[in-house]
Amino acid sequence: MSERNRPPSKGQPFHTRGGARGGASRGERPAGRPFGAWPDDVAILYGWHSVSEALRNPQRRIRRLLATENAIRRLTDEKVPLKLEPKLVRPGEIDRLLEADAVHQGLFAEADPLPSPSLAQAAESDLILVLDQITDPHNVGAIVRSAAALSVGAIVTTARHSPAATGVLAKSASGGLEHVPFCFVPNLARALDELKDRGVLVVGLDSEGAADLADTKLRAPLALVLGAEGKGLRQLTRQTCDVLARIDLPGAIVSLNVSNAAVLALHMARRAISRP
Description:
Layout: E1 43-46, H1 48-56, E2 62-67, H2 69-77, E3 87-88, H3 91-95, E4 107-111, H4 119-122, E5 127-132, H5 137-149, E6 154-158, H6 167-173, E7 182-185, H7 188-197, E8 201-205, E9 211-212, E10 222-227, H8 235-240, E11 243-246, H9 258-274
Parallel strand pairs: 2-3, 5-6, 5-10, 6-7, 8-10, 8-11, 9-11
Antiparallel strand pairs: 1-4, 2-4
Helix pairs in contact: 5-6, 5-9
GO molecular function: RNA binding; RNA methyltransferase activity
Region (Disordered): 1-34
Domain RNA 2-O ribose methyltransferase substrate binding: 44-117
């Protein structure tokens, strides 16, 4: 594993892995590379929910904050704590830092990445989500948003084959990154074994699962494992899970994309483990 993709040590921030590799100077937007030549240790946040939740999060250090006049007024009206004085800019100044279709709502921030918990710390949660090589940042962002809504304690995934916790993912997460930490591990199967050793029930979602998730006996602490869209869980991941369960649907379309499957599975799991 290269140093660039090595998982962080306990308590250290995870890196975005999204910076440019030479060539462009800071602030430029090289062709085909959104967000400019940002260093790997900078998280790029834009949009109302992403930035305002980061400002409310005491663990998030903001390095630079750009805001339009309307955005500053809204921050003031909603009593969002300002960790530093925002730089007043016109919307076009933020437009130039982002992809053409990015919706920034007048807010842009550079921040430190958040700390990554150890697997032992993640295992203390009653509900954990495990992602097996889900790489699309829109899907992962939507999953993070659902995980925050359903009080997931941590998201476990590999350092490789995971999108950067910045930019598009952060925008899709709609502030969820501030509430659900990522725990990066070098090997997913070994991480699942460690979770099981710590008393966590590991349930993989698979279309060939023996039973519907709704009919599967669930208890806390619980880890739900989701695979990439199309490919599903890898063979070793499937073999390592305690149980494989499917989601039965009554309609004409019998499959969901991974972010929709995640929210449905998390909702069923949260209800099951919350029952007395």
